[in-house]
Amino acid sequence: MRFASRRNPHQQDGMVSARPLGPSGRLDAAPAADFQPSAAKPVVFGGTVGLYTPPARIIAPSATAVLFASPWGLEELSTRKFFRVLADRFALHGVASLRFDYPGTGDALDPAEEETAIGAWHEALLDAARLLGSFGHQRVLLIGQSLGAALSLQVSHRMDNLDGVALLAPVVSGRAYLRELALWSTVVDDSLKLRDVDRAPAGSVAIAGLVMPAGIASAVGKLKLSTAAPARPVDYLLLDRPGQIGGDALFEHLQAEARYIERRTFDGYEALIASPTTSRIPQEVIATLVDWVDRHKAPAMAPLAAVASAFNPPAKALLQSPDFSERPVRFGDADRLYGVLCEPVGERRGATVILLGSAYDRHSGWGRLTALTARRLAAAGIASLRFDCANVADSPAATGAPLQVLYSREQQADVTEALDFLETRSLLPAVAVGRCSGAYLAFRSALAEKRIEGVVAVNPYAFHWDETKPLQDDLRSMPQSIDTYWRKMVSGAAIGRILRGEIDIRNSARNVAAAVFGKLEYQMSSRFGLSLTRSAERASVYEAFETLGERRVQVSLLYSCGDVGLDHLRYHFGDDGIQLNRFANVAIEFIPDADHNLTPQAARAVYLERVREMALRIRTRVQ
User: Fold this and answer.
1) pLDDT tens sequence across 404-413
2) Which end of the chain is more exposed for a tag (fewer CB within 10 A), N or C?
3) pLDDT of 259-295, one tens digit each?
């Protein structure tokens, strides 16, 4: 269903994008060769971190700004890049925006137990709107997704400067949302093969290592958006989730009060929220939202120079606690990279830890593992920098670089810029830490950068990557261990998915064949010292370890028992990596009952301790 919008009186004719789309026509394409976009400007307010994207300077800015209200949990991780791309597109049309983390999520501080009611999230939204007003934006457009859409509607009647609300796949029924979340959580936990003891306690609301505070979960469970949320006489854009029950009732509820309402289907929703690694940005939805914002932007009432000055947020941006001090930062060429510098309040000890992201997870990490690790390291006197590599989450794509950046040497340039940033603050030497693709990046960066004196690599898929064979676009078709394939083949769930056509038989057969061939390669290598096709790879891996050994770079390898990366380890270094004993600088450890993402608390404790030990082992250069 679609209702054609009227022309908005604020609309300006002849507005042209400051930068054309890429050759593919994709809205999130890499920037033109002569243009490097910057990361958004970090701001701190109310114990949380916001990212403010000002309007592009070459276009007359608008007095209207967009305020994003993000979803929660795994959906928030999956939509992080989507919101960044939207923010950049709005800026090109002269519209600023602000996105932020709710208290207790992402990079925000954890509130006191008595402050974990849903009102804290409501107040954060209102604080963000007031912040935009202090920057000179007289009008605000709210764009909320899923639970964020429900929160937006709940606070909209308290925002005097509100001009419109876009509801993306809104949570209409809190009870239905929590039931679906519980089912989704079970699927995620099953895919990770978590033990019952490592799953969220019965009755709690949790997913991907994230637990929703009980007070907030209770309020969400009582939510019925079509009757409980007050509607304002403003413009609404409702993008229904395909197949969602309750959309008609919500539409009628809004229509009764709306100045105008437009309704469409949120095409591509399921592909967007699948996971941070496989998320696909819905281009048509971006075009719809850009058009909607364009029709509601009000021209600025001040000269361009004065408006540009007013729209620059203050430079002070610091989160403080008794144990740590965190500063969201931009660094690199044109401030293209975004991250968080976490420092101890007391005396600094050991080397600075560079916490590298895994796949396309944002810098706070799976289940906030990275953010929580950084803060616990600071409590032990250890500084750290966690950041998004280019084209991941909050860092825009690098000029001239491919959009697919995993296992690419392009990311090593990002690490070099991180080291340059730390050097300007006298925070070297550094220890590089990462999991999965982040572990690969940490290992390869240590080879290229002598300023890295230690590496903690967790569940590395590989130590060598042939970049002439690029990573497949659909990362779900990545090869897994042969043991994993066998478990899936004999499971009833997998058979059912095959019958329903949900599994790509061709890719699966190719990957099974690769796993079997890899097993054969390992047997030939371990028994007879022969390599059928991977002799160059083996030479490269051994040369890399020998180089790090000669430079006395300390290397700690951590593997979850049964992890897919063990196939690569066995091929090159035998069972349990026994042949690594020849390298005095390398230690290896296997974590029982742990998944690839280190979801269980016991596994996280081992990880934290090994990172802490490594940082303290490396001497500190303090002036």
Assistant:
1) 899 999 999 9
2) C
3) 999 999 999 999 999 889 889 999 999 999 999 999 9
Query: What's the CA gap between 85 and 397, in Å, rounded?
Result: 10
The helix or strand, by DSSP H or E, that contains position 101, with its residue range, turns out to be: none
Is 338:107 a contact under the CB 8 Å cutoff?
A: no
C-alpha of 78 from chain center: 7
Q: Is the dihedral of CA 602, 603, 605, 609 positive or negative?
A: positive
Task: Report which of 15, 13, 145 is spatially closest to residue 79, judged by C-alpha positions.
Answer: 145
Give the mean model confidence (pLDDT) for residues 244-253: 92
**What is the b/e burial string over 283-316, where b = at least 16 CB atoms within 10 angstroms of the residue's CB?**
bebbebbbebbbbbbbebeeeeeebbeebebeee
Query: In 3D, which of 237, 275, 240 has the Cα closest to residue 80?
Result: 275
Highest mean pLDDT among 31-40, 319-328, 527-536: 319-328
DSSP 578: G
Compute the C-alpha angle 538/539/540, nearest 5°: 90
Sheet holding 235-240, edge to edge: 41-45, 48-53, 96-100, 64-69, 139-145, 162-168, 235-240, 260-265
Q: Are 262 and 189 in contact (CB under 8 A)?
A: no
What whole-number distance in Å separates Cα of residue 506 and Cα of residue 477?
Answer: 10
- Whether cis (ω within 30° of 0) applies to the bond prior to 429 is yes
Helix, strand, coil share (%) of the chain residues, nearest 5: 40, 20, 40
- Whole-angstrom Cα distance, residue 395 to residue 200? 32
Q: What span, in angstroms and rounded, lies between the C-alpha atoms of 395 and 411? A: 12
Query: pLDDT per residue over 423-444, tens digit each?
Result: 999 999 999 999 999 999 999 9
Task: Look at strands 48-53 and 41-45 and give their pairing.
Answer: antiparallel
